[in-house]
Amino acid sequence: MLDVRVSDGLDQESLVAFTDRLAATGRAGAALRAARTRIAEDVRAGRIPAGLRRLALSLNTPLPPRPRRSDDEPETPASVVAEEGLVVLSGASDDELVEALGALLGRGMRVVVTAADPGVPRALRGRLPAALAAYAVEELPSLDPAELRRLRRLLATSTPDRRIRGRQELPAADVLPAREDIAGCCARAARTVDGADAEEARVLPSLLRDLDAERRAAVTAVGRCVGRTVGGLNASPHVGWLRPAVYQLVHNVHRAEYEQLQSLAAQQRDGLERFSGGPEVVETGPVPDDAVVVVREYLYFLTEGGRSRSYFRPAAQREAQPVLSRFRVGGAVPQSAQDVGAVAFHLDLAGRHHEIERLCQVLAIPTPHGPNDLRELIDALDVGAAAARSVGALRHDVLFLQQGSPVVVPDLTAAERVARAIVDYDEHGDPAEAADELDRQADELAVVVPARAMAPEHERAVAALRAHDADAYGEALDELEAARRDAADQHACDELLARLRTDAPALSDAWAAASGARGGGYGLLCFAGSDTLLSALPAADSADLVVVLGAGALSADALLLTAVAPRMVAVVGEERRATSGTTLLEVLNQASARFLRGRTGVVQEATADDADPVAIPAQNSARGED
């Protein structure tokens, strides 16, 4: 027996040499040369056939025989193949072979059945029952192994829900409203507006909605101004008397008095600040009503160059002296122009103070009694005036929101409500508008696909929009995404099945019928002559097992068929050994292959005219006997 083991390890060139030694053990032929060339190219390219590598590894590092399991279940070819990569089956009838092929098919294995004589696998195929015949093909499918693997995975994971995706239409992701937008819209629709029971809150949103963006921005700016100014009014420490005054001012009641008081108070403040550094002026008696006029005329006389005299006093001096005698400037009777000016300024302050007192009484405002009170009065009046102006602007804008606007601002309280409603609409929108928007989007989404083709997830998304339920809508989007993946998988499955149907219509139909079956495999049975296989070796991962019929009559070169699949079962039948060189069985025995006998144990008796019968190697022949 020729030693065909790999002597220099499992590197690429050693495997090529191993292939050459196998090919040299038998007959030469075009098929063998093609296989030898193809294997060498694949090995050098790093695509080492799994079955050939397993054989070389077993020859290089023989493993001890695997002990038989102690369970009560008898060993079968299918169970042994699951554990062993190299198996020799002898003494099995055709019915046993068919049974074994059915078991292998049930495990989802892609089995290639071959023999040197193409008629042998063809005859075995003819014995297949109808249930198995549907899985039989003459050639391996032209689908790429990766595509075939994906098809088998898609079929194995198929569910009834996924299979109906082919009859459904799912909306594209870009036509679905974003979940963030819907969440915001739902929040606005569910929001409770402060003062929603007021007429303004019910009417204003629809009016503002119809305005163009520029006009609405202007109205919103006025509303914000009212919020700031009236807010400042309400925060004033003098709100008790200031708010009623502004209330009247809004209705143009005592507007002139209010504005006059603002002006006089500012003048009085400025006058007090200027006079604070001058001499003290004290009144020593009652002051005549015309004192201001008399003193002002005398001051004018002096500033224009006139002089006071002791004799022949001018008229202005004579009229002013009785009045000036009632004042003391710095403790003395005023004589100089500076003293007279101080008295005149004092009289101006007193006159304005009396007028301020009168106006405060008219406006029901506390009278200021000192510089600090005066400053607080001025600040409060400015706050009130700003609030009144903003309310007036708001009344004007609201009046002209549209022809016959139903919204009015009759008073300060109404102005506050209207301003809040305007700002609330700008910041948060109208709940009713948000609800209408959700309903509109639900209506649009409901007609994206025909009703008869609508998926349940699509229906749930529409229902969530109508219910204004952001959480339910988000869940529906997640379900739609999963449904979209299912639909893509089902589309790919249908497309791959259609392509498979062009090569093997019966196999495609059988796989489709078994789609989703738990525990079922998606295998196939390919029956072809060995020369056909060797002439054009299938791509890697095209088959899981190669079954070689009539293995007893084959030389070791037939082991190039290990390039077809990762596992090999050599079936020894009634054939006679037809070679004196190294045989396939001798090499498998050297590789510690598992030897298994069929239940019938048929062994043909040798005759004088026959060639030598097939001899099962003694060291392995008992392994697996039933």
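The above is record 1. Record 2 follows with the same two-line structure.
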Amino acid sequence: MEETIKIYSLPVHQVKPDSYMAYSNNLSKSRIPIVIDNGSYFCKAGWVINEKPRLIFRNIGAKHRGKKESETLVGNDISNIETVRWLLKTQFDKNVVTQFDVQETILDHIFSHLGINTNGCVNHPIVMTEAVCNPNYSRQLMSELLFECYNVPQVSYGVDSLFSFYNYNAKSKGLFGLVISLGYNTCHVLPVVRSRFDVRNAKRINIGFLQMSTFLQRILQLKYSAHASAITLSRAEGLIQEHMHFSENFMDDVRMWDNENYAKMNTHVVQLPYVPLPGSNTNNSSSKMEKCHVLLKRVQAIRFKQRAEKLAFDEERLQECLSVQDLIEDGDDEAILALQELGYTSAEELQAGIKKLNCDIRKLKNLISSQQEELQESPLSDWCEELNPGNFTDADVWLNAVKSKRKEVFDARQKLSADGLKSTNLGGFSFTTANDLFGGIYADPVEIKSFQEHTIELEQKKDQIKILDEILSEYEREFSKSETNFSFNLAEYYQLQLGLERIRIPEVLFQPTMVGIEQAGLAETIEMVLARYVISDQQKLAENVFITGGCAKIPYIKERIQAELLAMRPFQSKFNVQLADDPLLDSWKGAKKWALNDDNLKKYSVTRQEYEEKGGDYLKDHMCSNHYISLPAPVRKTLVQTSPPAGVKQEAKIT
């Protein structure tokens, strides 16, 4: 028995515009810190007293061109990103903030939706994430924006993945750990040695969720070129989140996909949206029954057309017969020849033919005179009402009933024909001509009447068989035409089959060369970082490997890292891999936990006074932050006066 293929719908992520929250007296009077996880994909913001961030939105903005005072849409205000993708703006270059006009728009959105309504200032400490090894110039502009534009009292910076690591190891002292951060634009391997971020041995890979999404989009657009416009970047991102997973051993799994049964069982079929063509739902029972009603009306119309043609033919033949009859009465010599041309052998036979034609013409005229009423009925109404399509809900059942009725009528006609052969020999004589039937001297009137009734019934059966044959013929013509026009499944045409792509797309983190990036993969980078330490420190780092970041939500990342560590670490050495419970929110939760410690805020926050004295790039180091490396002061250009020789004009030299 063939298994039913499961069809997956496209992941749809409905977003609602962020609501404006109340700014209570407790919030306005107390300087409760605001935690902002300024990620390159999602921005998370909220009060430090909240369990979860109040605001979670895509860190992008869009402003319609051509409007001077048009409002800029931010994050969840954009209901459909694809319709305004060409207008989207982000403050990031890779994972570093460079466009501070967009960043200001994002901060306006955050503070306004948190309900802050103080005039000209945000009187709350800010805890904000920044990129690993964030350039001093970028931090300087961010501090300038916060202190000069929003007049915040103090600000603390930290790295998102280190905050996530802190969320699980806040109480550990002298901590060793290896943080694997899987981000939107980049991935990082960050060693933590004795509770301090060892920035000198940290490594970055310029690949992330964005490159995975772009890779999948291009593969599917190449594979299904007819649906290239429907395969958008947003849909590719959703497909990765819903259908992709990491492979514990990529090459072994690729070989398994060579097996047809395995590939069939593990392929995911995703349905793209489409508009059904009119009339394409021929498999629908109600639609088929509607066609059966139309079919019967068409058969009825055909029958009336045939009757009209038969009437015209009979009237023409009647005129010819009457003309020959006049020739016979006038004794014309050509009468015998004309009689033979009509197929008659005697005047009596001609007279019988004229009577029959008159009878047929009267019958046809009576039928045609009621044509309007008859056309509104079924050709089965007067003798087989049980076959009316209104009594059925399934076209196939109705068709079988018509076939059964046709067999029943055909058998009855055969029986009548057999009985008629016995009764045609009346008194030992056989009625073989019209003269025998209507004027023969041997026929008994009672027997002739019985024979005529038998003949009429036989003709009725013949007519009924003809009607049923026409219905069956029209049915076959109608539905064979429909099957020809829609021989393919339209829904199936708009389906995407995700086979090997399910493991091929996430594999780019471990093999960046698959997308043309000539860099080491994640496993090689981990091995490279560990190799920079002595064996004892290597062991401590390997025993506390922590995975975080948005890509960590893709299934089996933990198992893949474990397999890679098993391959690279010495025989029987121990290692431990821990996956963040919520890779998207753990960085915000870790920053919140860090900010709840008043000592951290007092000790590691940069105040406005320190900002003015030490510069905007100033940073106080802590467990979750970058290292502050002060750049040398720029050399000032001064004018040096020199004494020129006598008679030479004095010039100023710049040193």
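The chain has 23 helices and 24 strands.
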